[in-house]
């Protein structure tokens, strides 16, 4: 018996290496509203036949596909693009087919150029056009026109040499005929890409955001516990400084059992405890710490902030203090020790007895998942759309994938920041399963070479298609050695790096502006007298706060800094000087940043710029406008001198003004 | 209503980036019998729990999976391996789970080191062991032993500080307990990799083969048309020269209509025509050209060759002369012009009127496919297992994927060489759909940098896992400018390059040995008086033939040259000198080749070797034994001088003898 042949033996087009596609289509690529999705793929067939390819896409809520043509680049690579204008999930796929008419048309041109007798070929073309006319029958005008065009290819004169074929068979089969033939192309044997590839579209703030973190507890007057109302009073200033996300550590009631006091000792009476020890007799994850105010106060804070263009971001920390109502109402959600007690958090030999983690391996996991989802939905209903998620890497990936998808079904505007400081593949996986943004290793990348390496990795596909870095020079848990020892220049340098390397960045504001660099003890990254356990009275350094405002203003004015695409590093001939540019796709906005990562010494170097790539004319001077100081320099050619004195300012942010007037611009010369 | 939770919320392990896997599992990776398949994957989970992972594999003919453990490397990457001992398809997958006992065991060690009270922890461990004992119940000995071990963890002494826990809880939970706990691990929540990944296993000759091409027509005595019997007489010599595949152009009857004569002119009476114009009244693809002999003669040639260790490779050229029986019996397999004639082959404006291509878009494609398969099966039944496939890139990929799979169902030993000189992605696709080996761009890569670039590309994964290069310095269609202008040194250099860069290589032998470098016309890569259209009387250059034999002998003696893995390029400080090494995985055999790609001048340079990677002791001299000349050099350190005079020999092949005796080796010193 003859072996069976496949059913699709006539489908000749192959498709490979489609981008953006994460892990063979397992996860969606990410974009924000208003962006364009550039789709590429290797599309080819056997032999020399011409191909046609279209990109098909739709928003998940739409039933009809929209089609847009793809065009060949080089080496069998094709490209198409589509705009994403709505929040939520889009899907795209590719359809391609052998375009016999285009093949015929190209070959006809060669035959004519070689002076060959093309009568039979014209007849071949005429028949193809007639077949197409038959397919187009529904729309009679096109059909009739195609029949006319077919007719015009049939030369009445029997002596072909004497009568060269007239247009459209003159070797330029273009315009109308090509359009009609494409419109009614025979796609019966077209190949459709094996998958519908997903793209998840988020709000613009998922890509470009500027975060300010503070502990409401320290915003009160003269040593009193701060409240939401106190925070509300700070909003205008935070807005003026250019922040658009205000992130608060957990705002819920704090447990009393094993409460931590100042500097992580056992709490003394009256100490406020760590806000991450969530839950007390006053309530759990859906309650508000009475010391901060009421739910109504919180809602008002959210609303007032929105008026200033600021989103209040809540901390989602899925863990409980020993006093959390869940521990009584749902003991099945926790792991129990042989003595019947609930297992506290630990990283042996360290113990965190004020925290009970959930047991995600409980057989009652479905109930636990539902309850945790209900927490996020609850706060979303209070007007919160930005969440900073604490330690997501200690909960299952499948849980986050489910929770984020469910949250977005109701709130597609939700933005989630993953606070996972852990192994790289775990951090990337969390981004793949849905987190909008991620904390990074930025805090510990302090030399120019480390920064170059790390940000080169982050800007490669496919990482750049699913992982959006959010850069923090400091957090309540991270006071780096660089900040501890580098003084003011270190704070300035890290601010400038974070704000220009990352379209999203944030600072744990009050201590950063206060230039707080003192650790709890030598070798520790914990702050002394950390605000996690006590109230602090921060003394902000006005010049630091001013620099923060200037840098944020520069970010707002320059679209190049509002995306992580278009990052390029530039050789400086000095390993203490890091130089990089960001530019918009059209090069209308090009920003060069030069940072001296050595906080102690003046560094000099030559910045080597690829002028052509940056859209700068090679043979004219151009202006480098330093945006922090306002100074303007006249640069010339690709190699220009820079000197950066950390004692005055360790970083410079240049905007290029491409056209510098010269004597040729005087009327005299025109 | 609460949103549905997924069914597998307890499966915590993620798997990514599994290798070898071609295009997300769409195509099999390739190996040969006797090799080891090294499988790697990123395997990780949330949190800090320990993991266990196993690789599962089986031959397609086996119903039971075999399991072998995987071990962690760094950065969440795991590795396992399995041997492939049979021809045909293997599949593998990965299973991984959270290993709670291992987590417990690691943490216990830390707790003990910190001097903590571990009574409760020992009870936790004892319970885990008891649960495992319950799972092991079928095999009572293990079960009982586990219960004993659990018991030993329960400390009778109520004062734990006074009685440190005894082994196996001493922080070294190893040996017996670990083995038993792994054997009966709870895999209820294990993650299995999403796919069964395929590996296709071929004969060793698919990886390591040495090809000799000749036209039987020219093997006759004194101008007479050669026959299979004449070829048979040449076999001992071809075998002595070290070739193990003898490839013959098509052996079928040759068409008369539009037959091509000498130098591609119209044939005069008596001219033999091109063997690729297949089919005449004497038969088609299953017939033998009577001028060469009978089918019985051919079968005897195949058998005699096998006795010399040589496979006769047939040319599969799926196209017809106008006289082929198919053109009458199956006109539906061809494309017809408006005047009713069959469409000949063309690449406008060039016409090849002696060749009719099949129309793979015919609605009768199923019958065509079956017939073409029957041709290959027919020759396989005559004892042929190696096929050189002519222009596979002008037939659909789906056709080849089907044909090769069907051929291998009956003949898993079949080896197919793809003769596709076309765009890179098309060549790679043909390899993916099943061709064992592929012609390459080698002939046109003549500078050291071109060779470095191209062979670096070919040795990267995933390309190296599906594309096996077969390097040809010349073919009947390719006489490169380098050979035309470089004289004897060019032929020698290209031979040495092909034989040492490629585990498989071949020469179109007689003209190569005759140093034939004359093109049909300036700018052409066609031979003058090409054997494709006429008989030739080749005058082999004895020293060239001798070099071929020496080089092939070196290949047979040195396993490093029998695989394309283990290729490394080395900096020479001279752009005309290309240096590279190949080594076996254990470095037992290390071969360094240095070729002067400039056929006209002596070139000198310093070869920079990574001694440690090559397994050469850094602090001792080592011997570089040049295998062509037999000369032995004493080298020292990573940087050694080479001088290559193309007039004597443009390439050198060194084998390193690692241990050079010194005075320390005399008994006197011992």
Features:
homodimer; alpha/beta; Immunoglobulin-like; Methane Monooxygenase Hydroxylase, Chain G, domain 1; six-stranded mixed β-sheet
Explain this structure to me?
The structure is a homodimer of 670-residue chains. With 670 residues, chain A is α/β, with parallel strands linked by helices. The first copy, chain A, folds into four domains: 14-99 and 191-201, Immunoglobulin-like (Sandwich), CATH 2.60.40.10; 100-183, Up-down Bundle (Methane Monooxygenase Hydroxylase, Chain G, domain 1); 209-318 and 365-558, TIM Barrel; 567-669, Immunoglobulin-like, CATH 2.60.40.1180. Helix content of chain A is 27%, strand content 22%. Chain A contains 15 helices and 30 strands. Chain A has an eight-stranded parallel sheet. In chain A, strands 2, 4, 5, 8, 9 and 10 form a six-stranded mixed sheet that branches. In chain A, strands 23-24-25-30-27-28 form a six-stranded antiparallel sheet. In chain A, helix 9 (397-410) links the parallel strand 18 and strand 19 (415-419). In chain A, helix 1 packs antiparallel against helix 2 (119-135) and helix 2 (119-135) packs antiparallel against helix 3. The longest helix of chain A has 21 residues, at 481-501. The radius of gyration of chain A is 31 Å and the shape is globular. Residues 158-171 of chain A have low confidence and may be disordered.
Topology:
2 copies of one chain form a homodimer.
Chain A: E1 14-19, E2 29-32, E3 36-44, E4 51-59, E5 66-69, E6 71-72, E7 77-83, E8 88-98, H1 100-113, H2 119-135, H3 140-153, H4 175-183, E9 191-192, E10 197-202, E11 209-213, H5 228-240, E12 245-247, H6 295-307, E13 311-316, E14 319-320, H7 325-329, E15 345-347, E16 350-352, E17 356-357, H8 365-381, E18 386-390, H9 397-410, E19 415-419, H10 424-433, E20 437-438, H11 448-458, H12 463-466, E21 470-471, H13 481-501, E22 504-508, H14 509-513, H15 542-557, E23 567-570, E24 577-583, E25 590-596, E26 603-608, E27 622-626, E28 632-635, E29 639-644, E30 651-657
Parallel strand pairs in A: 2-10, 11-12, 11-22, 12-13, 13-18, 18-19, 19-20, 21-22
Antiparallel strand pairs in A: 1-3, 3-7, 4-5, 4-8, 6-7, 8-9, 8-10, 14-17, 15-16, 23-24, 24-25, 25-30, 26-29, 27-28, 27-30
